[in-house]
Amino acid sequence: MSQEVLLKVKDLRTEFFSSKKSSVTAVHNISFDIYKGEILGLVGESGCGKSVTSLSIMQLLKDTPGKVTNGEIVFDGVDLLKASDAEIRDIRGGKMSMIFQEPMSSLNPSMRIDKQMIEGIRLHTKMSKEEARNHAAEMLKKVGIPDPQRVLKNYPHQLSGGMSQRVMIAMAMSCDPKLLIADEPTTALDVTIQAQILDLMKKIQKEEGSSILLITHDLGVVAEMCSRVIVMYAGKIVEEAPVEVLFNNPTHPYTQGLIASVPKLGSGVKVLPSIPGSVPDLASMPQGCRFAPRCKYATEKCRTQEPDLVVVGENQRCRCWLKQEG
Amino acid sequence: MGRYIVKRLLQTIPLMLVISIFVFMFIHLLPGDPARTLAGVEATPEEVEAIREEFGLNDPLIVQYIDYMKDLFRGDMGRSLKSNIPVTELILSRFKFTIQLVFAGLIWAPVVGIFIGVICAIKRGTWIDLGGMLFAITGLSAPGFWLGLMGIQIFSVNLGWLPSGGLDSWKSLILPSIVMGTGIMATLARYSRSSMLETLREDYVRTARAKGQKESIVMFRHAFKNSLIQVVTILGLQIGGLLSGSVITETIFSIPGMGRLLVDSIAYRDYPTIQGLLMIFALQYVLINLIVDVLYGVINPKIRYD
Asked: How far is CA A87 from the centre of its chain?
C-alpha cells in the first residue's frame, strides 16, 4: 500500500487522573495510520478506549480528568501534541473536524442553527457573514435538508435527532476537512435514519476525498463503510486488517467473538453466541494478555505474558500468542 | 416573544385574585375585633355596633370582600386605624425608601455573585475556587442583622465613616445595601458555580471547542449563557426574599420604609394597613416573577416557543 499518510498516531497513551499521583490508563500506547481518502473503522465494546482515542486526537480532553501522557499525533505534518493552542484551534473544525454520538445535545440550545454554523465557518475562512450564511445553506442542502433557510432559523430543539446529526455533519464538513472523526455518529438514531446518515457520510467522503475515522461498536456499520478496521480491546489495539480480510479471516479470538455475535439472517442459529464476561476495569487490568480471562483458547502463557502486535498476514496485524507461534 | 409576554401577563390576573382572597381571609381570621379596637376601650356596646354597621362589618364575608375589591380597584385601601391617613398614601410615602434599599442591594449583588461563581467554576479546584466559595459560604452563613450591627459598630461607631441610620445621602445607603445584597450574592455565587460546572460538561461546549473556537468565547458564548437559565430562576426567588428582608434592614438602620411600616402596623393591629401592605408585597413578588419569566424566555428559546 503506497498511500499517503494523513494522520499518524504513534505510541499514544492517555491516562485519567483521579489525583496527581494515581491514574488509570484508558489508551495504552496505540499506533496506527489513517491514509488520505480512506474510511478507517475503530471498533470495540464500550469502555475499550475508542472515544478517548478520538478525543485525544482532537485534543478535546479539557474538562475531563484525562491527559495524553505519551506518544505522537502527527496530522498533515503537524505534531498535535507539540503544537500551540492557536495552531490546534486552527486545525480543529478546519482541516480536522468531528461529529458526536448525541446530535441533539451537541448543538447549543440557545443559539439558532445559522449562528452556530456561521461561527465555525468564519473561524476558518475569510468569508463575510452573508457569504458564510449562504455557504451554511449550501452545506445543509448537501446533507439532504430540503429547506435550508427554515432550518437555519431554527433552534436545536425544533429539529429531530436525524436532522440534528445532518446539521452536525454539515457543520463539520463546512470547512472542507481532510479528516472527519465520527464518534458513533448513528448510535443514538433510529435504524432507518442510521442508514441515511451513513450513506450521506459515504457520499460526502467520496465527493470531497476526505478521510474518515469512524468509531463504532457496530460491525454492520463497519462492513458497509470502512476500507480498513482497527479492533481495540481494553485500551490496546488487538487486530488491524482491511475490512474483507477481517470479516473473512479474523485472527484474534476477540475479533472472532465480535463477528460471531452479529446476527445473520437465515443462518438458522437459535442462540446468538456472545463473548463471556466483560471488559476488565481500567484500574485492575489482568496480567498477560488482557483478553485472556474471556478467551476460550487462553493458555498459561497468555495469562502471564503479554503478546505484541505483530504482522500476521498482508496488511494484517494481530496481538495474540496463538498466532505468533504459528 | 410578544405572545409569550402577553400570555404570562394574563396569567397574573387570576393569581392576584387568589392572593387577594387569601389576604382578606387571613386578616379576618386574626383574633380581635377591629370595631372594638376602633371604638376604644371605653366605648359602649351600642357604639361598637354603630361602628360595625358603618364599616359594613355585619355584612356577609363575601359582600365585604366584593366591597373591598371594588375600593381596591379605585386605589382605595381604606384608612389607617392608627393615623387615619389613607393606607394608599401611607404606603406610597414609604415605598420609595424600600425600593431604594432593594435597588441598592440589587445593583451589585447578582453581578458580583454570578461573577464569583463563574470564575470559581472555570478555575475549579484551585485556590481561587476555594477562596471564592469560602467567601460565599461566609456570606451565606452571616445573618443580615448581625452584618448590619457589625457594620454599624465598625464603620459608624469606631471609624465614623458612614452614618448608622436614616437615608439622607448615598453614604447612608452603603451599609444597608451590604446587608440587603450579601445573601443574594452568596447564594448566586454558589448556584452559578454549580450551574456553570454542569454546563461545561455539556456536549455542545465540546462541539464549540471542536469548531476551533477560542476558550474565552467557548466559556462566554456557549457555556455562560446557557448556565444563566438556572441562575435566573434562583435570582427571582432571591429578589422575592429581598423584599421581605427589607423589614430587618429598615429596622436596624431606622429607615422609614414599608418593612418598618409593617412591623409598626402589626404591633398596633392596624388591619387596613397590614392588608394593604400584604397586597403590595404580593404584587411586587408576582411582578418580579413575571420579569424573571420574561428573562427566562429571552435566554431559553425552548420556553419562548412552547
From this structure: 22
